[in-house]
Amino acid sequence: MAKKYPLEQLAIIKKKKLEEAEKVLRQKKELLAEEEEKLKTIEAARDKAKKHKQDKLDQLRAALDAGEKTTKIEQMRQYLDIVEEKLKQHEKKVADQVKEVEKAEEEVEVARSAMLKRQRGVEKLKEHKQEWKKELLKEIEKEEEKESDEIGGTRFILRKKKHKRS
Q: Per the domain annotation, does 141 fall within a domain?
């Protein structure tokens, strides 16, 4: 009679939980990649705004050096203020997105540690099952040895009886 591993249901449950944890980890990694991609896009927009500001600043300096009219220079300064405000908005967006990326990284780490914990649980159960199998084999060998001894003893007694009759 083959014995069934007593913790088989637990092993199945732990394996399913490990698969779920792996799935969650994959999802969190995908989310992190998306957030990093958003950050790159936002940083590119910010860098474009920085370059635009620098270009306008250079134009203002050139106009000052050329002796442009005060009204034209004042318009350029006002426009530069608007560009500066837009740059600040881009900087804020970048800072906010950096926070989102950091949050996503933390979620990946939490998911990774949960998955590793589940993995250790599955490994421990596998080791336990191997030990259980070894113990089961030892028990079977002992039973077979006992049966063999009983059969041998019975044969011995039968031979002895047979030998006495002769």
A: no
Alpha-carbon dihedral sign for residues 20, 21, 24, 29: negative
Cα distance between residue 1 and residue 73, in whole Å: 98
- In terms of residue numbers, what domain contains 89? 8-118
pTM for this structure? 0.73
Number of domain units in the chain: 1
Summarised one tens digit per residue, pLDDT across range 110-130 is 999 999 999 999 999 999 999
What's the token pair of residue 78? 């006002």
Please enumerate, as own/partner, the contacts of 7-14 that have beta carbons within 8 Å and a separation of 24 or more: 7/125, 7/128, 7/129, 10/125, 11/122, 11/125, 11/126, 11/129, 14/118, 14/121, 14/122, 14/125
CA angle 117, 123, 124 (to 5 degrees): 90
